[in-house]
Structure formats: C-alpha cells, structure tokens
Amino acid sequence: MSKYLIRGGNRLSGSVKVDGAKNAVLPIIAASILASEGTSVIEDVPWLTDVETISEVIIALGAEVRRESDSILHIDSQNVNEWIAEESLVRKMRASFLVMGPLLARMGQARVALPGGCAIGARPVDQHLKGFQALGAEVEVGRGHVQARVKGKRLKGTRIYLDIQSVGATQNIMMAAALAEGRTVIENAAKEPEIVDLANYLNAMGANVRGAGTDVIRIEGVESLRGANHTVIPDRIQAGTFLIAAAMTGGEVYVEGAISNHLKPVIAKMKEAGIGIEEDVAGIRTVGGPGNKPLDLKTLPYPGFPTDMQAQMMALLTVLPGNSLVTESVFENRYMHVAELQRMGADIKIEGRTAMITGVPYLTGASVTASDLRAGAALVIAGLGAQGETEVQGLHHIDRGYLTFEDKLRSIGADIERVE
Ligand SMILES: CC(=O)N[C@H]1[C@@H](OP(=O)(O)OP(=O)(O)OC[C@H]2O[C@@H](n3ccc(=O)[nH]c3=O)[C@H](O)[C@@H]2O)O[C@H](CO)[C@@H](O)[C@@H]1O
Ligand SMILES: C=C(OP(=O)(O)O)C(=O)O
Predict the structure, then answer these.
(1) Which Gene3D superfamilies does the entry link to (predicted)?
(2) Separation of CA 168 and ligand 2 centre (Å)
(3) In terms of CATH architecture, what is 3-19+234-419?
(4) For 22-231, which CATH class?
(5) In CATH terms, are 3-19+234-419 and 22-231 the same topology?
(6) What per-residue confidence (pLDDT) applies to 289?
(7) What is the DSSP string of 57-76?
(8) 201: helix, coil or strand?
(9) Do the interacting molecules here have an ipTM over 0.95?
(10) Between the chain's N and C termini, which has fewer beta carbons within 10 Å?
(11) Structural domain boundaries of the chain?
(12) At what angle do helices 236-248 and 22-31 cross, to 10 degrees?
C-alpha cells in the first residue's frame, strides 16, 4: 500500500499546469461508443485510474482504444457489438454507469450493474432511469443491475424535467437522445462546464445539441454519429485544488490553463477570505498570503460552489481566524475528511449538513487516511500547511483524480513523497 509523506511548512511557488478534466473525459469516452463510423481522437486526456477503467469498459464492449501519447486517445467504436457492460469494471467506478445511455441508443438495449453508493452518499440513478423511460425504453432494475430495451426501433425524443440537476443524468440522457428519433428537451438540466464539453464533442460527432450550459438542453436526434476530434477542457477541480494548496502555505502559484470563468465561485470565496487572486486568459495566480477572514459557503450545482472543492476549502478554513460555516447540500455524507482533519488539530463541529470550523493557529502533522478522492486532496493540503510530518494513506482515491500529484506539488516546492 502506498502513502504520502508530507513535511509541511514549505511555501509553494512557481507554476503548475492543469490537466484535462477527469469529469469531462469520462462521459466523453463513454459517448465515443455512439460512433458507428470513423475514429475519435481525444486530446488532453489525463491517464488516471478512472480513465483507464472507462476505457476498459468500452474495450470490453468492442471498441478499440489506443493511446498515441501520454494524453491522446484514439477510439474506434465501429465494432461495438456488446450490450452488457462488464460488471467487474462497472463496480470499480460509479461513472461507468455513463455507458448506459450510449449503449441503449446504439445497441437498442443495455445492461449495466447498478453503481451503488460510495463514501460521499447513496447516489441513486433514478433520474437517469426516468430519462431512459421517457425516451421510450423499458427499464428493469433487479439483482444489482439495470437492464433497458428500446421499445420499437429507436428511442423517441421527448420532454424530460429532471427533479434534481444531476450531472450524470443530464449526460446520460443527452447521449441517449443524440440518436433518438425527433427532439428531446431536458429541463432543469445540470449546467456544469463538463456538460458543455460533452455537448461540444457530441456535436463534433454529428449530433445536434443546443443549450448545454443552460438549464434547458434541446437535442434533435440524428440517425448516426461518427468519430470526431476533441480536446478536453482543463480540470477546474484540479486547478482549484492547486490554488487552495498554494494559499494554505501562503504561497504564490500560477495555475496554468485554469479557466477563471469555470472557477468563479471558488475564486470569489478565496477573495472573500482575503487571498489575493490574479486572473488572466491563460491561468490564475494566487498572491499574497493564506487569507485572514472566515467564510460561509454552501455547495450547490454549477454555477454554485462545487461540492468537489468543499473538502479542500475546509482544509484551508481550519487555519483562517474566526468561525467559518460550510453547508454541503449536494451529497448527504461528504464530511469523511472532518475526523481526519480533527486528528491534525482542526476545530470542526458538524450539525446535520453544516460544519462549523473555528480557525486554529496551525495544524499538526498526523497519520490520516483518505476516504474518497477530494477528502484525500484536502488531507494533502492540510499536510502541506501543517507543522511536522503528515502521512496520508488511501492514495488509490487520490489517484482517481490527480495525475502525478506529488510530482506537480514537488515542482512548486512541496516536500512530499510517495512511499510504498
Ligand atoms: C464523474 C463525475 O462527473 N462526477 C461528478 C458528478 O457526479 P454525479 O453525476 O454522480 O452527480 P449528480 O449531479 O448526479 O448528483 C447530484 C445529487 O443528485 C443526486 N441524484 C443524482 C442522480 C439521480 O438519478 N438521483 C439523485 O438523487 C445524487 O445522489 C446527489 O446528491 O457530479 C457531482 C456533483 O457536481 C460531482 O461531485 C462528481 O464529481
Ligand atoms: C465525486 C467525484 O467523482 P465521482 O463522481 O467519479 O465519484 C469527484 O470527482 O470528486
């Protein structure tokens, strides 16, 4: 089992380049199986364990996936002929459920294991299923699987109102509707930049998707799609993580490639905390110290404060003077990092979905364990700012979302190593 050893206290400085977004590339790779001709070439693909898993899922369905270099993938889906997703792979990663919509549209039927809950919440898929049913599929859930079959020849365009602005449901329905007969309108759709990226990729494949990035998405179904070239958007969560890591150490770091428009709520809160931020077209820089004011924040669907940045921001708030309030409204159980931060000396009290964080002068290094991806990132941030040595276990969670994390952090001055 590998772990990080972090000797805290180094002030981070320099420049770090952000990779393509995990949460954009996963649906994009899933969408590739919609192409019945041609090859897709996807650039800025971060070769993370999750990316490897979704690639294995589509390979098992008959796609050919070839890595041209560290960050370019060629995907040929002409020979996709399976409609049952390999259960052992789907169980490895929730996002594998994103092959359900494309499979249903392309093959007329699909069987995918239910993704189940995880450390951050129950994470049901009822909105995905409601969408498939509205598009004219018969959906059966049982024995840990979802099986769906198109009634008639093709899915049929329809109007779907999502009860929750679910990112995954919006993506799954968009992908299924791309090959449906007629027009689909998704209302109360999620608006995340990763949805826009998927829509751009689908459109490059020959789809007709309009309105992505707003809460009404219109999709005119087409008869077939072909492979296309696409460059994945930069990872806003990775970028935000580096900005907060820099602030935690009172450092000045330029995060190259970060799109400030995608990070508005994070930047706004950092500024509110008194952290200097400079934005330009090519990236974002933190300047001038760790901040000195407490914050109130609530996680919300985009463009609200992202739940995927909550844990990292909380790590920073543990050392800002005063009382900060964090409310997690997206996932019901995303506070697993709290107990670990407390082991490092943080003063945090949780009541329901709200955490009150009273700033302490400093955290102290300890042995802590990541329970999920962003909890892991938060513990690394805490360790970078803490006095003494921190040991972070559970690196498989961190490896799901941060490529060569320790190398990037070392390149900006962190004292961090991965030991086996
Ligand atoms: C691979 C990927 O892109 N993952 C992101 C995606 O996850 P994911 O797509 O799973 O998240 P959703 O937006 O679907 O979930 C938001 C909320 O809706 C609930 N829900 C969702 C679907 C459904 O059918 N029924 C239902 O009740 C979930 O349990 C959760 O409480 O968006 C989340 C919210 O920004 C992020 O934290 C994840 O990093
Ligand atoms: C929760 C996350 O991912 P996933 O939906 O893949 O679990 C995340 O990226 O923080």
Answers:
(1) Enolpyruvate transferase domain
(2) 11
(3) Alpha-beta prism (3.65)
(4) alpha beta
(5) yes
(6) 76
(7) HHHHTT-EEEEEETTEEEEE
(8) helix
(9) yes
(10) C
(11) 3-19+234-419, 22-231
(12) 170
Quote the CA–CA distance of 381 and 244 in Å, as a whole number.
8
CA distances from 381 to 4, 56, 107, 397, 411 (A): 12, 32, 45, 15, 15
Model pLDDT, residue 118? 81
Provide the whole-model pTM.
0.98
What is residue 105's three-state secondary structure? helix
Give ligand 2 pocket residues (Cβ under 6 A): 23, 94-95, 120, 308, 373-374, 401
pLDDT averaged per 10 residues, the chain (length 420): 96 98 98 98 97 97 96 98 94 94 98 86 95 98 95 96 98 98 98 98 98 98 98 98 97 97 98 97 90 96 98 98 98 96 98 97 98 97 98 97 97 97
Candidates 144, 29, 148, 30; CA nearest to 87 is: 144
23 marked among binding-site residues:
yes
CA-proximal residue: ligand 2, atom 7 (nearest): 94
CB 262 within 8 A of CB 192: no
Which of the residues are catalytic?
A: 118
C-alpha closest to that of 277 among 253, 299, 293, 259: 253
Span from the CA of 168 to the centroid of ligand 1 (angstroms): 6
**Looking at residue 43, what is its pLDDT?**
98
Beta-strand relationship, 389-393 and 367-369: parallel
CA dist 61 and 49 (Å) reads 19
Specify the pLDDT at position 78. Answer: 98
Pair type for strands 323-327 and 296-298: parallel
CB atoms within 10 A of CB 191: 21
Amino acid at 202: L
Question: 3-state DSSP: the chain helix, strand, coil percent, rounded to 5?
Answer: 35, 30, 35
